[in-house]
Design a protein that fits this description.
With 295 residues, the chain is α+β, with helices and mostly antiparallel strands. It contains seven helices and nine strands, in the order H-E-H-H-H-E-E-E-E-H-H-E-H-E-E-E. The strands form two sheets. Strands 1, 2, 3, 4, 5, 6 and 9 form a seven-stranded antiparallel β-sheet that branches. The protein has a two-stranded antiparallel sheet with strand order 7-8. The chain is globular and about 55 Å long. The relative contact order is 0.19.
Length: 295
């Protein structure tokens, strides 16, 4: 395709080959991005745009049991429909389309990156790299300005508060909640998702052994798998009918230790295999807490 050789990903692939970064998966797995700008934290899920949502009448939401964490198990195959391939290829793996058109880039990605993705998924299934577990809980919630408050039982004092930014368009996550002092309060859902200790251990081992290409692919895929597990759990929550908004990140490994400990306790994180030590290190690192608004 005209212009395809100018794609940044193609250049990165050739550079990686020249450096001998063949990787575990043969020539198709040699295209490690040249850039080292890889964020360690779980990427925040983009809040969905619901045009006109704030102008719609509030519909009755289904009642659910509060403060009772539930555990979700999933297979890698279960999550494949929830993977955002463009986000994986461009943001997590670093293959920016550069000056190429979207069509050119997509044709190149189909030929070069999809085989890499398929090989890596097959490897992860064969070696049982992922232990996919999530926990979710419903909790009472209310908002005041940009601050969201979470409550347990009949308590009048909140056990957790979080300030969300107000976007340039004037919207804020807290706009989806009833005001503080209103009775009854709204219901929110919390989700904790992780892809397990083995994924973290394998990625670190590859990095320490100098398998830079393999590490970056597995690291990026593990981030996206964690996000996909969140979407999968979010879909289950939507079916319950109590919380139907789009999930937004509430906390990850960069969050304050006290905040994370409160949320992990509410979610019974041990059932999902997630812990946090006194130094604030989250384990596994591929874990994050998301909020699903009621509307």
């Amino acid at each position: 395709t005209k212009g395809a050789t100018a794609l940044s990903g193609e250049n990165n692939r050739k550079e990686a080959e020249n450096q001998g970064q063949k990787g575990l998966f043969g020539e198709e797995f040699a295209g490690a991005p040249a850039t080292e700008d890889y964020a360690d934290e779980i990427a925040v899920m983009t809040q969905r745009e619901d045009d006109g949502q704030d102008d719609q009448p509030l519909l009755a939401l289904s009642p659910v049991a509060l403060d009772r964490p539930e555990t979700v198990r999933a297979s890698l195959r279960d999550l494949l429909p929830y993977i955002d391939e463009l986000d994986l290829f461009e943001k997590r793996w670093g293959f920016d389309k550069g000056a190429a058109s979207r069509d050119e880039w997509c044709r190149w990605a189909q030929a070069e990156l999809v085989p890499v993705f398929n090989n890596l998924v097959a490897y992860c299934e064969r070696e049982n790299i992922y232990d996919l577990r999530a926990s979710f809980v419903y909790t009472e919630a209310a908002a005041q300005s940009e601050t969201l408050f979470l409550y347990k039982g009949e308590a009048s004092e909140s056990y957790y508060a979080h300030v969300f930014p107000r976007e340039k368009n004037g919207r804020c996550v807290t706009d989806k909640f009833c005001g503080a002092g209103v009775s009854p309060k709204d219901t929110a859902a919390l989700i904790l998702a992780t892809c397990g200790q083995k994924a973290q251990a394998t990625a670190r081992k590859w990095k320490m052994n100098g398998k830079t290409a393999d590490y970056k692919y597995l690291h990026g895929l593990s981030q996206e798998i964690t996000a996909a597990l969140t979407r999968y759990t979010e879909n289950l929550i939507h079916k319950h009918g109590a919380c139907v908004g789009g999930a937004v990140c509430l906390a990850d490994k960069s969050s304050a230790v006290d905040d994370m400990q409160i949320l992990l306790s509410a979610l019974n994180a041990s059932a999902a295999g997630v812990t946090i030590n006194p130094a604030g290190i989250l384990s596994p690192e591929y874990a994050a807490v998301y909020l699903v608004p009621p509307r």
